[in-house]
């Protein structure tokens, strides 16, 4: 089965529709499938429910879909770096389902494993638990959380072969592997596309069985969400004194 497509637009052409649910990998701007996000924006689909740890930043990543009002609901953990996100939420223009970060990760993992729900102590006694079943286990209260499964997952990988086997790099791994398992169709953009067998079996993080389509994106602008550096004088002083730079 041919999995490699010429570009992101071609890979998503017959998959996108209004009011669908899309999972989108990434943490901040690290490991986001930016080319695939751009293709979603260009398609004009609207009313989307997007499951992602965060919504990028203004004008970057999922922030682009917020600008064009294509997102109706976000299921997220952290959204503090996006002013447009905050504005739409406070104005009642965007529905948000907040999750503790570990709970969000487990909801996605559960969805990919075919687990419809699970119980966790996180969120008990807070707004997170409002409207959800709370059950006692061994004298402790646990709140029930539902697994998440999407119509489409968009992920980014460092390497991928033509059969869909993926390997992620460092922090860019984040939510991508679990999201790849938790959708009816998963489309991956990869920085380095190789032949089958070129990725050592022990180095494969997502087996190709989960990947429906692949786009080779060899050149990417890797944005930094917040750049923090030490002033040169302070760095020189630390180096002279044997401190860390």
UniProtKB/TrEMBL annotation:
<protein>
    <submittedName>
        <fullName>Succinyl-CoA--3-ketoacid-CoA transferase</fullName>
    </submittedName>
</protein>
<dbReference type="InterPro" id="IPR004165">
    <property type="entry name" value="CoA_trans_fam_I"/>
</dbReference>
<dbReference type="Pfam" id="PF01144">
    <property type="entry name" value="CoA_trans"/>
</dbReference>
<keyword id="KW-0808">Transferase</keyword>
<feature type="compositionally biased region" description="Basic and acidic residues">
    <location>
        <begin position="225"/>
        <end position="234"/>
    </location>
</feature>
<dbReference type="GO" id="GO:0008410">
    <property type="term" value="F:CoA-transferase activity"/>
</dbReference>
<dbReference type="InterPro" id="IPR012792">
    <property type="entry name" value="3-oxoacid_CoA-transf_A"/>
</dbReference>
<dbReference type="InterPro" id="IPR037171">
    <property type="entry name" value="NagB/RpiA_transferase-like"/>
</dbReference>
<feature type="region of interest" description="Disordered">
    <location>
        <begin position="225"/>
        <end position="245"/>
    </location>
</feature>
């Amino acid at each position: 089965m041919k999995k490699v497509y010429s570009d992101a637009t071609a890979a998503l052409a017959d998959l996108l529709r209004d009011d669908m649910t899309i999972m989108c990998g990434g943490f901040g701007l690290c490991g986001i499938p930016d080319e695939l996000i751009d293709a979603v924006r260009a398609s004009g689909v609207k009313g989307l429910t997007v499951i992602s740890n965060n919504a990028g930043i203004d004008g970057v990543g999922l922030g682009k879909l917020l600008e064009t009002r294509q997102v109706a609901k976000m299921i997220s953990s952290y959204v503090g770096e996006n002013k447009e996100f905050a504005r739409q939420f406070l104005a009642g223009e965007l529905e948000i389902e907040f999750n503790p970060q570990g709970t969000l990760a487990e909801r996605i993992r559960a969805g990919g494993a075919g687990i419809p729900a699970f119980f966790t102590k996180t969120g008990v006694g807070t707004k997170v638990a409002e409207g959800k079943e709370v059950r006692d286990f061994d004298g402790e209260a646990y709140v029930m959380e539902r697994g998440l499964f999407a119509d489409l997952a968009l992920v980014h990988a460092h390497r991928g072969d033509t059969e869909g086997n993926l390997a992620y790099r460092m922090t860019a791994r984040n939510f991508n592997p679990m999201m790849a398992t938790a959708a009816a169709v998963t489309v991956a953009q990869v920085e380095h596309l190789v032949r089958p067998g070129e990725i050592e079996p022990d180095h494969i993080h997502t087996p190709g069985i989960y990947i429906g389509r692949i786009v080779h994106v060899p050149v990417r602008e890797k944005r930094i969400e917040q750049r923090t550096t030490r002033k040169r004088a302070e760095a020189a002083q630390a180096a002279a004194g044997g401190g860390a730079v």
